[in-house]
Amino acid sequence: MSELRARLQADLKTAMLARQALTVSTLRMAAAKLRMAAAKLKDTDIAARPKGIEAVPDDEIIAMLRGMVKTRRESESQYRQGNRPDLADQEAAEIAILETYLPQTLHGSALDAAIDRAIAASGAASARDMGKVIAALKSAHGTALDMASASAAVKAKLAAL
């Protein structure tokens, strides 16, 4: 079992014992989505079993959790626009719970420096080379990237070249 999956399960048990309804609900949703991802992995990657792949890797769990955070941010925005602060606050609380399982992302000057290094390493000269820069960023920083903000920042930097 992966370290992140074990942490999710342990925190779910702790939240259940502490009777923290919101945390239990949020972690159960994450666990259910993780079970669906595991089933999908088994269906599509049965050939990978001899290679030792039995569980969903942490990178995929992190991507799943980021997707859950993204949908909750969108829901929170819609609820605020619809004048439903109670539901927006619940979404914000779920976001806070899910973000505790995500690695720190690069942002601000750290992201700018990483993009500058990726541009230099890939030899990018125009916006057409955006794919090379993103690939260099992914290989260097992996899960520490928020791809939405990184893509926008790369696009802006390459447009300025």
TrEMBL record:
The residue range of the signal peptide is none
Do you know which InterPro entries this protein is assigned to?
Asn/Gln_tRNA_amidoTrase-B-like, GatB_Yqey_C_2, YqeY/Aim41, YqeY/Aim41_N
Alphabetical list of SUPFAM superfamilies matching this protein: GatB/YqeY motif
Molecular function in Gene Ontology: carbon-nitrogen ligase activity, with glutamine as amido-N-donor
Name this protein carries in UniProt: GatB/YqeY domain-containing protein
Biological source species: Acidiphilium acidophilum (Thiobacillus acidophilus)
Organism phylogeny: Bacteria, Pseudomonadati, Pseudomonadota, Alphaproteobacteria, Acetobacterales
